[in-house]
Structure formats: C-alpha cells, structure tokens
C-alpha cells in the first residue's frame, strides 16, 4: 500500500488529500499539522474550512484510508510520498520585505523530513513557492540525508476555493515537475500513477521543476490580470456611461479572449493572487528585469485603486461623510461559498469606511465575529502564519458589530455595501430592507448582483460597479 503524508492541513492540504483518499482506496493518506485545533476540527463534525462537498468526501474516507493527526514525525517517517502544503507568507522584514516569500515554514518542514526519514522518499511541493525553491529544499534534504535518497517534485495546486472539490474531481490539468534524470522521471511516474486513478492521462502535464513552479505563479498572475483589466474598464465605464457588463460580454465572446473571469467587482482577494504576484515581481527584480516587475505590479495597483475608489464613491455619495452613520456590510469572505477572508477586499473597504468614522454592521453567512475582528485589527501579511503564531490583536474595533442576519445588519442603516456575491443576497426582501433603513437609502453593489431597476423602483439610490450612474450620484463630487 502506498503511504502518503501531507504536511499542512489547510485549505489546500485538507481538500486535496481527502480527494486523493476517496479516489485511491489503495492509498493510505495522513494529513498532519502543528496546529492542534485545526486537526481536532478535521476529526470532528465541524470541519475547519467551509467548502461545498467537502464534508461528504471526508465522511466517506476518514478513519478508513484518511487520517488527520498532529503526530507529524511519525507519519512523515512512514510515508513513501510526502506532500508539503504549509504556509508561504510574504516576508515582512529583511531582504525582499513586502514581496519575497518567507520560506521559514517550508524550510523547517524540510529539515524535519530529513531528520525523521529512514527510507527513500518523494517530497512534493504543493505550496506555491518562488521559482527554484525545489533546488533549495533539495540541498537541505541531501545535506542531511544520512544516505537516504530524496526526489523533489513540484505539483502546484490549481483548485479555487468555493469550488475546490469540483476542481479536484475534474481538474483542467494536473502539473508535475521533476528532475530530468532517470530517478526524477521515476518519481514523476509514481505521482502520476496516483492522479491517473481518476484524472485522464492527457490532463496530467509533466515538465521540469522550474517550469512547474513558474507556471503556478504565471497562472495566478494571468487570472488576477484579467480582473484588474476589467476593473480598470469599469472606472472608465462609470465616467463615460458605458456598461461594464455589456463591454465584458462583447469582449469575452471573442474566442481568443473567452468569457470567464471578466466580472467587474470591488477587487480580487484571497490568499494567493496578491502574494503570488508580489513573489513574481521579486523574482523579476532579482533577475534584473525591472520593466517586467513593473508590469505585473500594476495588476496589484489597479486592485488597490478599485477598493479605494469604492470607498470614495460610498463616502462622496453620502454627502461626503459617513461619520456616525450606520453602514451595513453584506459579505466579508473574499468570494462566495467560502469562509476564507484572507486578503478579502472587505478588509480594505471596511477600514476605509472606519477611517471616515462610519459605524459598521457586518453580516456574512460563513465568517465569525472573531475572524472579522482579527482581520480588521491585524497588520498586513500577518494572516499567513499558522494560527497559534499570529500576533494577537490587543483591541477589538468598537465601531464594528457583527450580526447573523442580513435584515438585522441593514436595520436603521443609511447604506448597504455588498462585498461578497453570496447567492442569498440576490433574493433578499429588499422592500423590507428599504422600509427599515434611514432615507435616502443607498445600496453600493460591489459585486453587481442586485437587480438595479427593481431596487430603484423601491426607492433605493443604487451604485453598481462600472454601470451608468444614478442621477443622484452624478451630481455628487467626482471621485478620484
Ligand atoms: P493554510 O494556512 O490554510 O494551511 C497551512 C497549514 O500548514 C496550517 O494549518 C499550518 O498550521 C500548517 N503548518 C505550517 N508549518 C507547519 C509545519 N512545519 N508542520 C506542520 N504543519 C505546518 O494555507 P493554504 O491555503 O492551505 O495554502 C498552503 C499553500 O498552498 C500556500 O503556499 C498557498 O500559497 C498554496 N495554495 C493555496 C491555494 C488556496 O486556494 N488557498 C491554492 C493553491 C495553492
């Protein structure tokens, strides 16, 4: 029986390993983590992450060929294949601060693998890492190997949160990079055999190590670039009276461009896009390519611009101040169908409104009050460390209340900001919401999900990203 161990039971390690266990009954999978609460949650009915379909997969395999444990060393020692899916935060200090990836957790995992191993192993990079990390890991492993042979593979994960299980069941592709030596090719084949149990062979791409590592960063940079491109257009649409949905549709029907990922919004979020682009920027700078670095940096700048543009629009529309006004925030997660708030645009929007002394009442169906308070008081980049190592915030943000119902959040509010595209926000009783709000009642739709005509009929003043402006908003001071 092949034994797999995955270090890191997070958004990537948990779902990917659960699906491998489900699809490969002859493989024994252990997912290990240094975080005790995380492992306890994986072994309970309340899994630590929300992901449609995940509960079902875990229930089918847990205790059979899928195990969650804090006994990291034991399971690593026993494994034939070790996946490493630990955090790779952006460095906040020293060389490359604010851009380069911090490989502390990766390095300590590699040293531990070298320490406890008594048999040959394939070590698989699952975390997104800077190009050439495999080489560094290889050095750590071989210099500490005590005669054991390690083969390093890069197998970056392309799942999207919110559709992780679907993506893992039917991936567009699985990418495996390895050394171009006979041993390297043998290791690639061993991992390919695992995936081939449910993924068609022509969807399993094999490359050299560096191509696999760079492809992951490139894929995320391209995806984020599409969002920044359409968001840049949305600003121009608002200024000119064009409608960004019509423009995106017209552009996306060109088969060379395609329709996906062209929804204008308040901005992209999530743990990967910004971090991976910063990483790419740093790699370009280190390789003497400042123009290329500048090019990709712009994707992040437009994203920041889109968030501050949204805040400015809210404040400018409401007589240039939200001081003391109640603003309802519907949605805090970085997208629907996940409870993940890492780098969610809601953080910057809320901080912007708090900066103008607004009072916020926040509702998200999957995000807890504790998480929201942490997010609003944490420093940039602190989120990407194991939970028990994150600096605790000394105070909670007093002007923020978190409620468990959209009607409660909007009661007596002056304005509603929709920041996540949860389906339930499309079917709310907006007449009831309007009746219970202060007047004039504003809705700022950061995800373009509401029926604007219907809401205007009810009496709302509505702002939608990239759409022709309400007469009211046109008369308000221009926003930068
Ligand atoms: P996460 O923060 O949810 O999980 C990482 C886990 O690793 C944490 O539970 C932490 O306690 C554990 N850990 C850290 N050091 C450890 C050690 N030495 N031994 C044992 N456990 C340790 O992070 P997530 O989202 O799963 O991401 C992991 C990697 O995958 C990152 O490099 C990320 O960039 C990448 N990635 C993330 C995707 C996503 O959608 N979240 C998609 C594709 C890649």
From TrEMBL:
GO terms for cellular component: nucleus. Belongs to the UDP-glucose/GDP-mannose dehydrogenase family. NAD(+) binds at residues 8-13, 33, 38, 86-90, 127-128, 161, 272-275, 342. The active site is at residue 272. Keywords: NAD, Oxidoreductase. One of its GO terms (molecular function) is NAD binding. Its EC number is 1.1.1.22. InterPro entries: 6-PGluconate_DH-like_C_sf, NAD(P)-bd_dom_sf, UDP-Glc/GDP-Man, UDP-Glc/GDP-Man_DH_C, UDP-Glc/GDP-Man_DH_C_sf, UDP-Glc/GDP-Man_DH_dimer, UDP-Glc/GDP-Man_DH_N, UDPglc_DH_euk. This is UDP-glucose 6-dehydrogenase. It holds the Pfam family UDPG_MGDP_dh. PANTHER family: UDP-GLUCOSE 6-DEHYDROGENASE 2 (PTHR11374:SF64), UDP-GLUCOSE DEHYDROGENASE/UDP-MANNAC DEHYDROGENASE (PTHR11374). Pathway: Nucleotide-sugar biosynthesis; UDP-alpha-D-glucuronate biosynthesis; UDP-alpha-D-glucuronate from UDP-alpha-D-glucose: step 1/1.
């Amino acid at each position: 029986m092949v034994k797999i161990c995955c270090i890191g039971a997070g958004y990537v390690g948990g779902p990917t390993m659960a699906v491998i266990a489900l699809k490969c009954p002859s493989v024994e999978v252990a997912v290990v983590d240094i975080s005790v609460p995380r492992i306890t949650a994986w072994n309970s009915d309340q899994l630590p992450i929300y992901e449609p379909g995940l509960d079902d997969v875990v229930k089918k395999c847990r205790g059979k060929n899928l195990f969650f444990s804090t006994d990291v060393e034991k399971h690593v020692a026993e494994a034939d294949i070790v996946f490493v899916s630990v955090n790779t935060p952006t460095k906040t200090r020293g060389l490359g601060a604010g851009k380069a990836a911090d490989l502390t957790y990766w390095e300590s995992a590699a040293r531990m693998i070298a320490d406890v191993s008594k048999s040959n192993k394939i070590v698989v990079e699952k975390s997104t890492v800077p190009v050439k990390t495999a080489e560094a890991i290889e050095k750590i492993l071989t210099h500490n190997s005590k005669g054991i042979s390690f083969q390093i593979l890069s197998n970056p994960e392309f799942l999207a949160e919110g559709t992780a299980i679907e993506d893992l069941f039917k991936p567009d592709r699985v990418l495996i990079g390895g050394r171009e030596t006979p041993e390297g090719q043998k290791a690639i084949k061993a991992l390919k055999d695992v995936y081939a149990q449910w993924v068609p062979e022509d969807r399993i791409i094999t490359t050299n190590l560096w191509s696999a590592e760079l492809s992951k960063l490139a894929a995320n940079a391209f995806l984020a670039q599409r969002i920044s491109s359409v968001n840049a257009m949305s600003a121009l649409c608002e200024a000119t009276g064009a409608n960004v949905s019509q423009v995106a549709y017209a552009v996306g029907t060109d088969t060379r461009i395609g329709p996906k990922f062209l929804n204008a919004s308040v901005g992209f979020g999530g743990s990967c896009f910004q971090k991976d682009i910063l990483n790419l920027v740093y790699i370009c700078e280190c390789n003497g390519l400042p123009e290329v670095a500048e090019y990709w940096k712009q994707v992040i700048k437009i994203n920041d611009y889109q968030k501050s543009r949204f805040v400015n629009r809210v404040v400018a529309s409401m007589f240039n101040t939200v001081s003391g006004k109640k603003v309802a925030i519907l949605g805090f997660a970085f997208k629907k169908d996940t409870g993940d708030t890492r780098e969610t645009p809601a953080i910057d929007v809320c901080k912007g409104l708090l900066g103008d002394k607004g009072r916020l009442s926040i509702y998200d169906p999957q995000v807890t009050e504790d998480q929201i308070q942490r997010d609003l008081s944490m420093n940039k980049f602190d989120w990407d460390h194991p939970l028990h190592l994150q600096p605790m915030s000394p105070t909670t943000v007093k002007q923020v209340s978190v409620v468990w119902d959209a009607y409660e959040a909007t009661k007596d509010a002056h304005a509603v900001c929709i920041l996540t595209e949860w389906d339930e926000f499309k079917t709310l009783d907006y007449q009831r919401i309007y009746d219970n709000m202060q007047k004039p009642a504003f809705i700022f739709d950061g995800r373009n999900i509401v029926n604007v005509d219907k809401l205007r009929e009810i009496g709302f003043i509505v702002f939608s990203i990239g759409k022709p402006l309400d007469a009211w908003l046109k008369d308000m001071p221009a926003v930068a």
